[in-house]
C-alpha cells in the first residue's frame, strides 16, 4: 500500500485548463438563460392574468 501512495501523483494535462474554462462558461450561460427564461415566464403569466382579469370584469358587468 505504501508503494501506491508514494508513486501516485495527481496528474494534470494541459487540456484540463481549457476544459475548466469551457465548463465555467457553460455554467454561466446556463444560469443566464435560466434567469432570462424565468423572467419571460413571469411576463407571460402577468399578460395571461391581465387578459383573464379583463374577461372577468366584462362578465361581472353583464351579470
What features would you describe in this structure?
It is a single chain. Helices cover 84% and strands 0% of the residues. It has 63 residues and is mostly helical. It starts with a helix and ends with a helix. The mean pLDDT is 85.
Concise structural overview:
The chain has 63 residues and is mostly helical.
Catalogue the unreliable spans: none
Summing up helix and strand content along with how strands pair, one would put the structural category as: mainly alpha
Cα-atom Rg, whole angstroms? Answer: 28 Å
Overall body shape: rod-shaped
| Biggest sheet architecture | none
Topology as a string of helices (H) and strands (E)? HH
Number of helices: 2
Q: Report the helical percentage.
A: over 70%
N/C terminus separation: 86 Å
**Average pLDDT level:** 85
Strand coverage percent: under 5%
Strand tally is 0
List keywords for this structure.
2 helices; mainly alpha; about 60 residues; rod-shaped; about 0% strand
Task: Describe the secondary-structure layout.
Layout: H1 2-7, H2 16-62
Amino acid at each position: 500500500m505504501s508503494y501506491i501512495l508514494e508513486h501516485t501523483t495527481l496528474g494534470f494535462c494541459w487540456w484540463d485548463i481549457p476544459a475548466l474554462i469551457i465548463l465555467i462558461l457553460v455554467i454561466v450561460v446556463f444560469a443566464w438563460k435560466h434567469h432570462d427564461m424565468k423572467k419571460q415566464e413571469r411576463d407571460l403569466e402577468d399578460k395571461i392574468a391581465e387578459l383573464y382579469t379583463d374577461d372577468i370584469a366584462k362578465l361581472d358587468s353583464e351579470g
